[in-house]
Batch of 3 targets.
Target 1
Amino acid sequence: MRYSSNILIPVLIALLTVAAWALLNRPADEPPWPNRIQGFSFAPMRAHNDPAFKNFPTIEEIDEDLALLQGTVHAVRTYTVESTLAAIPRLAAARGLNVTLGAWIGADPDANEIELARLGEILSKGYRNLVRVMVGNEAILREDVSVSELTQYLDRVRKMTWLPVSTAEPWHVWLKYPELADHVDFITVHLLPYWEGVPVEQAVAYAVSRYDEVKAAFPNKEVIIGEVGWPSNGRRNRGAEASLTNQTRFLRRFLAHAEQAGYVYYVMEAFDQTWKTRIEGATGAYWGVYNTDREPKFVFTQPVVRIPHWQELAGLSVVMAILLLVFLYRDSSSLSSKGKGFLALVMYGISTAAVWIVYDYTRLYMTPATAIVGILLLVGGVGVIVLIMAETHEWAEALWLRRWRRPFPLRAVPDEELPVVSIHVPAYNEPPELLIETLDALAALDYPGYEVLVIDNNTKDPAVWQPVEAHCRHLNEAVGERFRFFHVDPLAGYKAGALNYALRETDPRAEVIAVIDADYIVQPLWLRHLVPAFQDPEVAIVQAPQDYRDADQNAFKAMCMAEYRGFFHIGMVTRNERNAIIQHGTMTMIRRPTLDAVGGWAEWCITEDAELGLRVFEEGHKALYIPCTYGRGLMPDTFADFKKQRYRWAYGAVRTLKHHRHQLLGIRKTTLSAGQRYHFVAGWLPWFADGFNLLFNFAALAWSVAMVMFPLQVTPPYITVALVPLVLFGFKMSKSFLLYRRRVTATLRQSFAAGLAGLALSHTIARAMFGGFVSGGLGFFRTPKLAQAPAFIRALADAREEGLFAIAFWLAAGLIMLRDDAFMLDVRVWVAVLIVQSIPYLAAVVVSLISAAKTLPASLVGPMPEMTGAGSTARVEQGH
């Protein structure tokens, strides 16, 4: 049954994927392209040409283009007579093509005079294939000249030629300045419904209505269409989508109507013009019927298909999804059919999206800039896919496991068979009353053979450590010689140094080492319930979760409690399935011979606990985790301390991964299983994603600044690419909320509070990721206890970096919305990206302010349920 579901589910979803591709690419019949159209707008620029830099095509290249159009069009329309373009009338005559000759009118009067002089020279040669003259192209629309200035140019040219003379403007300019009609022999309108945001289904009717409107306004003038077309790529303009399919549909439909109505028209345009990107944005390059390689971009008579070769892309997406699933299904024996179906659905979804995005991007003309961006996007896209795979896998295993493969073994063991346990309590400058409370709980343990070693390292004030030393003597009088106190100053190695010192002082009879933090109050049955797991000789580590006892103090601590709980109730449980838990520095036990064999605690690492656990796994030992509370400590009192703690954890994770990279990648042979390697790499991927997200944020802000400073030259990022961070954010938030509700059994308020607290740490984790890669000298941050909550101003200062980022994103979004093209969909999507990217930074400010508001009650979040392990890996039996 397992193998059939592994095959059947992917096959069914593959069929659905192919069906979806087919549905989106159904052939649509459209009117055929005429055998010969009226005219083309003709600019024979090649990909390397740019008239702004006086880089024009050669005479031979122009003639090649005219030869390509020969027999398919009656006439071509030009825009300037500068440089080699002045030869077009002569070359076109040899190809049997008529020419509407254009003279460019711009904002420079001297340049206009030179252009008109060149125009006069060509007209004086009397080319018989010249049929019309255009003086200026959208010069009024661009506000390069006034109406009176343009009419003077028109009157001058009309005197120098017998050919009919006009100027070309969009339809609304003629209606706004009807006096122009008195200075032209015919009206030339541009009908480009894309720029007006008209959907393609309405575009032909809209263009015809505007043509009729102009014709009705000037009944005594012939009206010709100087430009009509649709872009094959670029930005979406309100309801108008720039796509190859829409270009095909619009032009074939319009031409069918134009031929029937007898219009004189020029299709915009013959060839794509990559140089126009600089002045018209991404869309400007894609108006041609032929691409820059002079190949037709679409079919002229056959049914129209959105992606002509969609079968290959569908097949590629299926193959990619199958490869991803082969990796995810390698160890899915305990996953239900729903879980496997979920994995398959998401993998097919991201594979299809990836193939579509890559296909879409490769349709762009590759310049050095787009190529570099493409490479960066490819690298980032691979990272996104890997991250989604890891998140999806955890999602599926958290919700749809049929059974837990590694339940925690609760055994009833006679007292005489229980091993001696040495409990190590490292302390540095801890409030004495706090540590005394911890020791009292240890004295109440229901376990026959144990000792407690308190190692106070480097505390300078005797008033801090001497009361603890005295209390240990008092406890020994009450319960026997179980407690030993050590004050060591100086002692190197931070917490790991203290633990190694304790290891050297441990009773030789002790077979198990247990570690708790100085603020933890343990339950009496902690050792009796968990130590028997060591009867399995392969088990080297037994871990209980970190839990906390001060969540009822205020709303901030209740939020932190909810945020912590997710890892211990979700991440650690799924890791335990593959013997890949992260060992913690409290509520942990380790077999003493194993600890000695691997060399003790690593004093170079500030997360010595997780690093030790990885070394133990590399030696082939097992670890067990039980998601049941056996001890509770104290949480950070302020947001600043909350950040310091998470920075230390994330920083240490990076240092550990760097130190063990050869083992994790299989370069150095160890006994690590594939599942262990997977969890130790994939488990920290969300933190690495925060690091890469910081780079993305810097790039996003830089791009936004460029958009504001150079609105004509810099457009928003490609819309399908810009949607990725929005989709990823939605995916992660959905996963977090659903798993909290189902696995943590959290309320909606608690799920929201946990999400807010987690988001607030994103920037801290990102900084830790880069800090861990760059340096290895971070000092150990002890998480302060019982600190005073900060004032309002201090709370803002604690989140100052995040606050500045949030302000920068909002400012960028606001300024971008002031652009003239703010109505464009890609602009609005990019603004949405900026707003979404600001949310983690805003969360940090909000959480910091909540931490300052000491009086906010914890009831706003609500108490978290007890961690009893029910429904996961074990049920704790009360008693023994």
Target 2
Amino acid sequence: MDHTEHLTRYTANFTDELARQGITDAVISPGSRSTPLALMLTEHDALKEWIILDERSAAFFALGLAKETNRPVVLLCTSGTAAANYYPAIVEAHYSRVPLIVITADRPHELRDVGAPQAIEQLKLYGEYVKWFHEMALPDSSESMLAYVRSKAARSVYMATEGNSGPVHLNFPLREPLMPDFSLDYIWENDGEAGQPSAIVEEGVKTLDKHQVNRMIESLRQKKRGIIVCGPQTDETFAASIVKLADAWDIPLLADPLSQIRAGGHSKKHIIESYDAFMRNKEIRTLLEPDFVIRFGAMPVSKPYLFFTKEHKQAEHFIIENNSGYREPAGIHAHFIYTDPASLCEALMEEQLSMEEGWLEKWQKANMVSKKHLKAGTEPAITEGEAVRGMMEVIPDGSRLYTGNSMSVRDVDTFFLTTEKRIRIHANRGANGIDGMVSSGLGAAAAGNPVTLLLGDLSFFHDMNGLLAAKHYGLNITILLINNNGGGIFSFLPHLKNEKHFEALFGTPTDIEFKYASHMYGGTYKKAGHLDELKEALEEGYLHEGLSIIEVQTDRVLNAEWHRGKWQAIEEELLAGSDLGNVF
């Protein structure tokens, strides 16, 4: 056999095994050295290819697609700095536990470290941010090497999803010529049965035995002021289990906006969603002192909840993880329990705990007072909180919301109140960066469900070239762009006191007319000045196939004052008593 046949059969068997292992999508960043793999991924009937020109955008697109489908997505690029541009999304995938199979083409060994063009050190390029790295052998089509290449493809899929999901990295050294020969017979097969994966893995879930559950119950039995907390997590089916536990114990359930619990048809009786608003006051946090906390999922978005956790270290804290991890930024003493969360809820429900009389009612009244103020009033010029509130009123049932970081996710935390609508919410809260947000939202939209992307002007600016995917593939996405001409979140922080350097270093105004970006990428554009205009524009956007951008312009300083006014009104009513009775 000649070089081309070795190359063809080797890369074809690798690609085919990915498909046999259940991979359906591959995001390709075009380049030369990756030619054989790119062509194979494109030619295979079971795979859908997404061609994204910019590598950073491609990686975040793959991240969003993997989040939405809950399946690993293949990500392929050529050699050199192309691979380095994947790094930010790989960091995010690591921390947010998203499965990616990152494939980097590379120069063969004889062209490394000798001054050859487009050759950088790619071995273990992503360090500890990938779960597994493997340097592939040079292409060969012997029976043993085809078995080898299939085994590595199968292992990459398993490693990306085993335990806590995450990215894996395969580096392919490839010699020229790089064009495969598709005229060869049976390139997708080896000696194994056609269509069958080379390896089948079955994996169960972790559960606690009866004695372990009993120990947990006994440690709680004498406690009377408990809360259940659900932070960011992606399992949409978990809501049914955790609300049943809260109902059985008659206990407050604090639900993060990314918990997938605030929306849906399940019971909302025990859900407390406005804790971020009423926990901003230290006296209120003290009056709600718990004696135990059971947290599922990651740490909630809310900073007041973080303060609450730090201030009540004496409470017994249980942190439930599916497989492994140490997501506890408050520095408290905690019991880490690694088990299937739904199974644990079912086991705990078999035992009845009794809370202190009036304990649940305190939380419910505080929640009701907060929601009353958060829903109240309409400003002549729309505020950022009102924009999120209006969006949640009209967002279609069954759609997806992808929210940016900084102020966007915090306003979702505050103004996304419980709803019967089925809304799945995504965010890049692993590393909490503002880069790649447009591409991530479009990646989620590539799965076929309508997506609303909520983000600020700086996040939009960082990733405007990601809009090319919307134009190229006609993806259905509505972008709500909150434009406060800079970094609005810094107006809530002490940085504002440094007036001399604030605008240059933190405010960072761009003074960009974003409507031109919409026109450049073939989208529709509207600017909304008040709440009714916004809701009308969003509803029109949801009816439009393709890219729609609705821009809301706000003032950073006035927006901060409006938010503080809401929080102050909530604090005053709660501490003074309310028409609901004496809350505390």
Target 3
Amino acid sequence: MKMTVDFEECLKDSPRFRAALEEVEGDVAELELKLDKLVKLCIAMIDTGKAFCVANKQFMNGIRDLAQYSSNDAVVETSLTKFSDSLQEMINFHTILFDQTQRSIKAQLQNFVKEDLRKFKDAKKQFEKVSEEKENALVKNAQVQRNKQHEVEEAANILTATRKCFRHIALDYVLQINVLQSKRRSEILKSMLSFMYAHLAFFHQGYDLFSELGPYMKDLGAQLDRLVVDAAKEKREMEQKHSTIQQKDFSSDDSKLEYNVDAANGIVMEGYLFKRASNAFKTWNRKKPDHIRRWFSIQNNQLVYQKKFKDSPTVVVEDLRLCTVKHCEDIERRFCFEVVSPTKSCMLQADSEKLRQAWIKAVQTSIATAYREKGDESEKLDKKSSPSTGSLDSGNESKEKLLKGESALQRVQCIPGNTSCCDCGLADPRWASINLGITLCIECSGIHRSLGVHFSKVRSLTLDTWEPELLKLMCELGNDVINRVYEAKLEKMGVKKPQPGQRQEKEAYIRAKYVERKFVDKHSALVSPSEQDKRSSSKSCEDQRLSHARASIHTPVKSNDSGIQQCSEDGRESLPSTVSANSLYEPEGERQESSVFLDSKHLNPGLQLYRASYEKNLPKMAEALAHSADVNWANSDENQATPLIQAVLGGSLVTCEFLLQNGANVNQRDVQGRGPLHHATVLGHTGQVCLFLKRGANQHATDEEGKDPLSIAVEAANADIVTLLRLARMNEEMRESEGLYGQPGDETYQDIFRDFSQMASNNPEKLNRFQQDSQKF
């Protein structure tokens, strides 16, 4: 550290020392002014930012109100809801940024000014005081006369003591100056670096958010282009219709403009008519004609009217078969006609003679039609009361469509505990951690993002598109399962979960829960005796499975719903009948001697993860990872096989996805040079092959026999896997030739893989073609 003021010069109290002090004191005074100004500007920025967040939130609420108003337009409502949710998260990001700014700039620099600069000022006051005392002592010592020995000794003693005190205070002052000059660099840089990291996190979170929203915005943009084209087309059609109608001459037949006929809705005729009051005075209301002008219609053999469209129709004549209609020429008003029923009569007035004739003709026609109708009213009621088979079918079909259209949010929230945030308990969480399999509120999801993707991968349940295998993974775990692992010791430790809104408490709790894993019961036995017995039977079935595969290489085997053969005891997948097991797996005797399936009271986490992966036991896998299991742990007793390879042998697509989401290496191979893609190809697991290719598996890798996955699939004559491997290889070559490194590929490639993923997760029976074809021969 370079000293600002030399200690040796301090002892000399030379002019050079005084000049250095003067320069430092001026510099510190200016530094204090600059820091005070910066803190004030920071406070103003934070206040402005908070006001911006308030205004932005009001604007976002306005978007939500507009979305609710547009509930009859699904496209507008869905889009505005998604955008308002994204803006809400950006507001949260802004709030976090301003909080971190307040801690890094305002609080830190204010503390530096109040503490360190205050110490400097106190040291300066002491130095100035003792310096003045020293000067006085020197003057007094110089003024004492030689012959006054008593005063000479007294002045000398005072001068010695003052010099000693001066040196002590001066040294402390110089030390304070040097420490301050050194510390101010670190304090300023530390606060500014923290401030810049806060900005980095803010823009990174915003980039991630809008990267997830990008595909939806792109699709919406394409849809908007179509809507613009359709709107322009509709505008031209309406303008043409407007011009055509405008050119017509209605002067000769005004009645066509005054009434309407809607045969599709059973309306024979409708239009405005004046109605005479049915009271004893039989009057027409001349002062308020709108009180007697009504919208009449003839429908369902009835004459009805209504004042407003939303009003329930008032029935004037219930059955036109019992009525007659006639002209009325004996009253003063023109264009009147009367509809007479056995119980009452109704006097009506049209706006012209042609309209009166049209109404009279319409009533007469309706009367005649009512007599010709076949069947009585009771038969119609019977038909209405007994639903037809077609209606039942349509109801079932609509229900099926509803189930198929069920959102990711609805499916995931059906899992126990998922209706509230896993960490703070806030209701209706809209975010999820896909590698943990839990649901989160928006505030906890932001904290999970800050932990890093190696701890938690956050995704939106409403804004993101969910792959089928990922959605199944979420449904296999859930908040209750994970909390039983990560909060096992919570009650014993007396720790309470944070409440919604307590952000600092949430940050500390989530970091302790998932990063430090303080609440995991690390002393609990990882495997129970019942599971030991189950695993022993699994070992027996596995040995039988391999023996059966070797004994019946070309014998048809019954396949299950997942498109893979099963062992007769526990339903595990067996080797495809057309693949040589002896060329792919070690001798049976060596597997029986393996320690993987030996009983033990306690397992290390890696071995537990290894076993649970084969058994498709996701809760046990999550528990092993919570106990710090290495997701890429290799079993030295089983050819260096990994948990991911065991998941392939177990035949579960969801288990493979869980391991991959938690950092499993898709290209890690065993001692025979076979990775997960090799094993999935050998076993004919089409869904797993598709998953590994999507996750970046190297299909060019060869085993110790020099075989890559494609050559194995060709040898086994598995058409689906050969198609996937060749398509992935062709897509890879196209991207390399066009320089599109890191790009997913063209739309055809993505569509085909998306279809295979959907079949593997939702319709695995469609991937049975390989096994079914082999059974035919």
